[in-house]
Amino acid sequence: MASFDTASKKQVETNPLDFVYLCFKFGLENITVLEVVTPEQPTVEMRQADILIKALYEGTEVLVHFEFQTADSYDPEMPLRMAGYIIRAIEVYRLPVYSNVLYLGPDAGKNDPGKFTQNLENHNISIEYQVFRLSEIDGQTILDLKLAGLVPFAPLMKHPADIDAEQWLRRCVQIADSIDVPNKPEYLGCLAILGNLVYDSQTILDIISEETMQHPPIVEYVAPQARERGRQESTRENILEILAFQLQTEAAQNLKPDLEAIDDLQRLKQLFRIAMQVETLEEFTQALNENNE
Predict the structure, then answer these.
(1) Domain count, the chain
(2) Rounded Cα–Cα distance for residues 61 and 65 (Å)
(3) Closest by alpha carbon to 194, among 232, 161, 221?
(4) DSSP 8-state assignment for residue 155
(5) Cβ neighbours of residue 167 under 8 Å, at least 6 residues apart?
(6) How far apart are CA 252 and CA 259, in angstroms?
(7) Dihedral sign of CA atoms 118, 67, 98, 96 in order
(8) Which of 77, 163, 178, 245 lies 20 to 30 Å from 289, alpha-carbon distance?
(9) Per-residue confidence of the chain (293 residues) as pLDDT tens digits?
(10) CA distance 252 to 257
């Protein structure tokens, strides 16, 4: 499981009500979280749905579904994926579903319409879901509310115009450190992992070290993810180098954005083996586009 995914799910599992409030844009008071239903439970047949929160809303049980994405989804595209998740959740749980996709990456989700449609005579289908792009959410509001589940995501949110990115990161760390949570090193570690989508990891650790007393324990949580990212980056570079060498082309570099969107190390290793065997760049591109999210 990708480190960003793990850090995101940890916050939902620990502070589910904050995400329910986000789903309803903080406009609800009379809602109670009953349980967090994760895909690992035997009763859940939605194999890829990120997380489901069962809640009581105006006396009715409902499901709040969140799908976390670091980058855009292409195969299948997000509307089709979300339609499958929503229908499957309704079928399995027989409850109303409030479905949301939350894009972590700053450039992700710009073209997500928040709707799956099929327009056929007498067979029209329309399934809607809510789209959140962290880079468009007002981060200062989240810090002011001190919502423990959402503060670790704040470095990825829109910061006030009168401060720069590093000052914003420092402010996020200060607020996170002021929140009373059971495991502060793990909590700050999640902020560091998520923040690494935008900030250099060493910059994050330096600011955490300066603003808190948590630096040594933080490394315990961040280092494994950092090593994983290092292996991913190394494999991506190896793929590009072998393509350039095998095919005598500089066009391989054009594939770098697609490779960077893949955070599954096993998938990258598979692509590396394919890169060593293909005879044309088109062959590799076709393999890259297969099951590439």
Answers:
(1) 3
(2) 13
(3) 221
(4) G
(5) none
(6) 11
(7) positive
(8) 245
(9) 357 888 888 899 999 999 999 999 887 778 899 999 865 444 444 445 578 999 998 889 999 999 999 888 877 899 999 999 999 999 999 999 999 999 998 989 999 999 999 999 999 999 999 999 999 999 999 999 999 999 999 999 999 999 999 999 999 999 999 999 988 888 998 898 899 889 987 788 888 888 886 555 666 666 666 666 667 777 787 788 778 766 767 777 888 888 888 888 888 888 888 887 788 888 888 888 875 54
(10) 11
Among the candidates 151, 184, 213, a domain finishes at 213
Enumerate the H helices of the chain as residue ranges. Answer: 3-14, 16-23, 78-93, 139-145, 165-178, 184-195, 201-211, 215-247, 256-260, 265-275, 281-289
Residues 22 and 132 in one domain: yes
Token pair in block for residue 137? 């959410």
Side by side, which strands form the sheet with 97-103? Answer: 31-37, 51-57, 60-69, 97-103, 130-133
- In terms of residue numbers, what domain contains 232? 226-289
Bridge-based pairing state of the strands 31-37 and 125-128 = unpaired
Task: Measure CA of the first residue to CA of the last residue in the chain; give whole Å.
Answer: 14
**Is 105 in the same domain as 189?**
no
pTM attached to this predicted model: 0.72
Asked if 172 and 155 count as a contact pair (C-beta separation under 8 A), the reply is yes
